[in-house]
Design goal:
nine-stranded mixed beta sheet; 2-enoyl-CoA Hydratase, Chain A, domain 1; single chain
Amino acid sequence: MKSLGNLCKNPPIMSEAPEADPRQQIIDARKRSLAGCSSARHAIDLLADTNSFTEYGLLAGHTTAVDDDGPSDGVVGGVCDIDSHPVVVAAHDRSVENGTHSERNMRKLAKLITIAVANRWPLVLFIEGDGSRATDPHPVPPIVNYTRARWDVLEGLTEMSGWAPTVAVSVGPTSDSHGAMAFLCDLIIATPDAEFGSNINSDKPLSSANAAARGDIDVLVQDVEEAVIATQQFLHYWHDDISDFATSDTASSIAQIVPDNRRRAYDMRKVIAAFADKDSVFEVGAAWGESLITAFARVEGRSVGIFANQPLSPRAGAIDSAAADKASRFVEWCDTYALPLISFVDNPGYMVGPEAEREGIARHHARPLSAIHHRTVPLYTVQLRKAYGLGPFAMSGYGASRNMPELRVAWPTVESGGMSLEGAAYLVKRKEIRGAADAVTARTIRDQYAEEMRDVASGVRAGRTFSFDDVILPEETRPLIASMLRRSHRDLPSMKVHHIDTR
C-alpha cells in the first residue's frame, strides 16, 4: 500500500481524455431519472393538473455516481396544482430499494413538508415501502444526518395536522417509518394491495380491509386511479365552490325515505344523498363504527361535514364505543378546517350491556359531547325519528352543553325520551305484561302503551315545549339549512386551533 508521502512525491498520471460535457451529463441524468419511478410518476400525473408539476430532487440518487441507477432515490416529489389550487405531493416507488427511506429522500420529504406548512398547502403522499434503508450510505455532504431528517418529516406531519389537509394513499406494503407517516395524515386511502405492519413481523401484516374495520383506514379503493379520484374529491372541500351546483335527483322524495312504520329500518345514506348537492357526498370511515355515518358534502356549493346515525346498521344506529370515537374525531376534523356541521339524528341511545362495557363505553361515550362543546363552527341538527337517553346529546350536545346547536329542528315523526317507548312500557306495565296469558297478549299491552306515549313524545308536543327550534316537513330541510349556511362565513383561523385526534 502506497503511503500518503509516496502519493505526494509520485502523483498518479491523469488521463488526457477530455472530461465529459457537464451539460450532457445533466441531460443524461435527467433522462435516466424520468425513465425510472414509473408508477410514482404515473400517480402524480393522474393527480395533478396538466403540466403543473414542479419536481424537487429529480437528480437525487441513492449514490453519487453519474450513472446512478436509483432514480430520484425512490421518492418523486414537488408542487403541483389540483383544480388550479396548489398542492404538495410526493410518491414512493418500490422499484428503487423497495421504496425504503434514506437520508436523501427523507431530506427531500422534509423540505416538501416545510413548504406545505409555510404556505398552508394540502399535502398528498403516495406511500409504499419497507421502512428505513439498512444499506443507506453516510450522507455526502454530511449536513443533516438521517435521524434528524426522519424526525423532520414526522414532526412536520404533526405540525400539518389541523393546519392544512394531509392525505396518505397506501398502494402496497406500508411498514415502519412509512406506516408512521401514513397514520399521521388526516385521511388514509388504501388499495387492496396495501398492508401495514413491521419488517420484524412481516409474515403477519395487517390487510387494508382489516385496517379499515378497525378505523385505521378511511377510504378503501380498488386501484391507484380510484385513489386519485378520491383524493381530488376530498381536497375539493378545502375550498368552497358556490358557482355551480345542482340538487339531488332524489331531493323531492326525501320524505318517502323514512318508513311510516316506526320499527322499520331505512338507509340514512339515502337521506344524506337527497339532502346534499348532487354527487357531492364523500363518506369516510364507512367500514368502522357502522352505526354512524360521517361524510363531507356540499349544500348549495358550500362545504359541510355531516354525521348521522344509521338505522340500517346491525346496532340500529345505537352509539357504541367505535361510533363515539368516530363522531368526536369527525367533529374535531371539521372544526379545525372551519367546516359547518350537520347532524341527522335517529338512534335508540348509547349501547349498553356486557359487550359495550368491555369495549369501554363508559369512557368513550363522553368524547363526542366534549368535541361538540369545544367546537367553533356552526352545528345544525335535524332529528328524523327517535332519540333516547344520551343519544341526542352525543349528536348535538343539546341539554348537556352550553355550546348549543345553532339550529335544532325535528321532523313530525320524532319521538324523544329517557328510553325507548317499549322500554318505558316494560317498566310502567311490568305487572300486566308479566301476568299476561301469552306472549301475544304481552306484546299487545306493551304496544298499546307505547302508542299512547308516542303521542306524548310527538313532534308537536316537543315543539310546544321548545325542545326544538321548529318542527318542519322533510322537504323543508335542505332550504332551511341552506339559508343558515348563507348567513355564516367560512373563515379559516389564522393560527392552528388544534390537531385532529388520532384514530
